[in-house]
Amino acid sequence: MSGLLTLRGISRSQLEELLDDAERHGKLIEGRDKGSSELRGATVTTAFFEPSTRTRLSFEKAAFHLGAHVMTFSPESSSLEKGESLRDTLLTLTALGTDLFVIRHKDVGVPSIAQRWTGLPVINGGDGRGEHPTQTLADALTLRKHFGALEGLKVGIVGDIANSRVARGHLWAFPTLGIDLTLIGPRTLLPTANPWGARIEVELDSVIEKVDVLYMLRVQRERGAGAGFPSIPAYVSRFGLTEARLARMQPSAVVLHPGPVNRGVEVCDAAVDGRRSLVLEQVANGIPVRMAVLAAAMRAE
Amino acid sequence: MIYVRGARVWGPAGLTETDVVIDSDRVAEIGARDVPAGARVIEASGAILGPGLVDLHVHLRDPGQTWKEDIASASMAAVAGGFTAIVAMPNTDPPMDNAKTVNAVMERAAALGLVDIVAAGALTMGREGLEMADLDSMYEAGVRLFTDDGDTVADSGLLRRIMTYLRDFPGAVVAEHAEEVTLSRGGHVNEGIVSASRGIVGLPAVAEEVVVARDLALADDTGARIHIQHVSTRRSVDLMREAKRRGLAVTCEVTPHHLALDESAVASLDPNFKMYPPLRTAADREALVEALEDGTVDAIATDHAPHTVAEKDVPFEEAPRGVIGLETAASVGWAILKGDADLFFERMSVSPARIAGLERHGQPVERGSVANLVLFDPSRSWLPSGFHSKSANSPFAGAELKGMVVATIHNGSVVYEGPTDE
After folding, report:
1. pLDDT tens column, A266-298
2. Which is nearest to B75 in space by CA: B58, B90, B95?
């Protein structure tokens, strides 16, 4: 029983092995044969208790490429609506013949509890504000393919880092991979403690010319007393990747975004559509990464 | 009659190894003598005999949530923990905000007769924080501690009127759960290293501290006697120390878990480490221990809060707040106070009895004192499990504890005897 719950404590060699394996799987699906039979006969259940399109589809495509059966669980059409507990739901899906779970849930730690409850390997498809490990790995693969190596790469993550599961996964794994990480955002959106020792900047302008990569996080449009900044225009003026800022970036610098994008808010159109954008590569690289993770989990099993 | 032989007895002059005769509900004699005819003999060599422990903060869950705990199971847990008196929090269903509900609980507890259970009454009707509860009738029923525990009275004007009103009732104490919800809403662990590294919204220390500061200012203004429940931060105890230095009639309590554990314990996201206030930093914990030693903190109180295994076996953020504490408090308190019997009985019996106005409890053992007693063996080790409580949500489960309650005597009767030493 060894899924992928967290990137915390995963060593550099383990991470690099996963990325290498992802590249191998990437080559497998380039041709017309499209895939392998590593998971033939196995049933992968995607249990997403929170809305998702790209992550779920990406996992399901990855599972198909490996020859697995896929069961898709959707909470809106399930007995959860009738008050069934999370535990009972997962045990039911286990009894239906699941061999491996991919789970997304609004609460931190659900994948690890699910692994304890079901005894099956679980892959974390995003747990609350916790982590989104396969997004992190897809982003690492995207950068490694683009730049050739990750060592010394200067990456700035911009936005609501405190509440971002994507950023938290990056915070565990990117420094381990040799990436030089800077967190950029208003203090209200920065983590209240910094166990990673990451560099902190409170103005995008102070790093815009130095970074190799800007990783733009989606702005939560939460309004009122809970918001971490006074208004969207105020946010954009300090942290938006505008055309003016785009022009000041290093010639070779690139832009990533985990999606879905708020065009005109954290990024301008040119940042998403222009030559610096690796946004669609991120999506594409998600599939071989998830193949590698699924295959590793079943091998361990 | 009971004859306790060879215990180290905690009396007005500290510990003395001697024998004690208990007759009816009193300590009849102190000193070795012939065992009176018909007396039951308790061999207590190596153990300490002192006043029964008093817990200012227990959630009985009765009425309303008796699948978690009830008066009978809480009574058993209390006596197994060496307590002879406990104060029941009013966040029951229905809440204890009137004499009728209060009397019903106290009468049922008295009928069992294991432990004195006194009710704390709600400060506001329905604990809703909107208007005064029926304070007069509850006072008449014997209530001395009033609190909306679980919730802070957010309306400062209402709290000030309550504090002023209760000044006319001798011995009445306004106790507060200090939590400013606009600062704590959505939080599940201390705001700090665990919240940041796990991505769980934090409960900042300042959510407690702003209420402590406000309440101390209101106490100063009104002259009310106030008690701050389960303080958990360095700045809270600094505020308390300063208020006491200025002579305010203020007291506070701290829980065994806040004294023994810090936020690192919750990194595993085990819901048995989830409570309010949350486990804080190591520096906070050290400040609490220091404040307990120097008297800034008056009492150890458990905040015994039972929840069933099923209720706790859920994602951390969904899990209810609270841990049980009655059965482990003596061991944890003894260890934290490094076996200082004077401090141990002061903080776990004498002071809490005084705060709650319990005259039959918290008396040093001497001729004529009420026989509400605990026999505690500091040398015995044990593994907390198989709790008398209906719930088992203990942060100390499975960890060996040193120091064990071997007997509890309530009104002159042995109400609990621990397992014998093999």
Report:
1. 999 999 999 999 999 999 999 999 999 999 999
2. B58
* Inter-chain touch A193–B196, beta carbons under 8 Å: yes
Which residues neighbour B286 within 8 Å (Cβ) at sequence distance 6 or greater? none
Does A107 contact B182 at a Cβ distance shorter than 8 Å? no
Q: Read out DSSP for A241-270? A: B-HHHHHHS-TT-EEE--S---BTTTB-HH
Is A165 an interface residue toward B (CB < 8 Å)?
yes
Say which DSSP state B349 is in: I
Q: CA-based angle A279:A280:A286, to the nearest 5?
A: 100
Alpha-carbon gap, residue A91 to A87, rounded angstroms: 6
Q: How far is B269 from chain A (nearest CA, A)?
A: 7
- Tell whether A129 is within 8 A of chain B (Cβ): yes
The answer to whether the CB atoms of B200 and A105 lie below 8 A apart is: no
B367 pLDDT above the threshold of 90: yes
Dihedrals φ, ψ of B176, to 5°?
-130, 135
Run of H or E residues at A134 = helix A133-147
Tokens 């407690």, located at residue = B208
Residues in chain B whose beta carbon is closer than 8 A to a beta carbon of chain A? 182, 191-193, 195-202, 204, 269, 313-318
Extract the tokens encoding B333. 């308190």
Measured CA to CA, the distance from residue B376 to residue B417 in angstroms comes to 11
Any catalytic annotation for residue B303? yes
Nearest to B378 by CA among B26, B10, B57, B4: B10
Interface test mutation site (partner B, options A108, A127, A160, A217, max chain B beta carbons within 10 A): A108
Report pLDDT digits (tens) over A42-53: 999 999 999 888
Residues of A in contact with B316 (CB under 8 A): 107-109
A108 touches B: beta carbon within 8 Å: yes
Please check whether residue B272 is in contact with residue B397, taking contact to mean a CB–CB distance below 8 angstroms.
yes
* Alpha helices in B254-378, H assignment, sequence order: 256-260, 282-294, 309-312, 329-336, 341-345, 351-356
How many angstroms separate the CA atoms of A94 and A84, rounded?
15
Q: Spell out which residues of chain A touch residue B204, defining contact as CB-CB under 8 Å.
A: 192
Put simply, whether A192 touches B (Cβ < 8 Å) is yes
CA distance B334 to B2: 26
Q: Where are the alpha helices (DSSP H) in A68-109?
A: 86-95
A173 SS3 class:
helix
Residue for token digits 């020792």?
A197
Token pair, residue A247, equals: 């022009």
Q: What is the pLDDT of residue A223?
A: 56
pLDDT band at B1 (very low <50, low <70, confident <90, very high): very high
Q: B301-348, pLDDT tens digit by residue?
A: 999 999 999 999 999 999 999 999 999 999 999 999 999 999 999 999
A–B: how many Cβ contacts below 8 A?
Answer: 59
Q: What is the pTM of this model?
A: 0.95
pLDDT tens per residue across span A18-37: 999 999 999 998 876 677 88
C-beta atoms of B199 and A108 within 8 A: yes
**Is B148 in contact with B177 (CB distance < 8 Å)?**
yes
Number of H helices, E strands in chain B: 14, 18
Of B303, B342, B377, B421, which is the active-site residue?
Answer: B303
C-alpha–C-alpha distance, residues A109 and A102, integer Å: 13
Distance CA A289, CA A133 (A): 10
**Structure confidence at residue A83 as a pLDDT band (50, 70, 90):** confident
A191 in B contact zone (CB under 8 Å): yes
Q: In angstroms, how far is CA B69 from the centroid of its own chain? A: 16
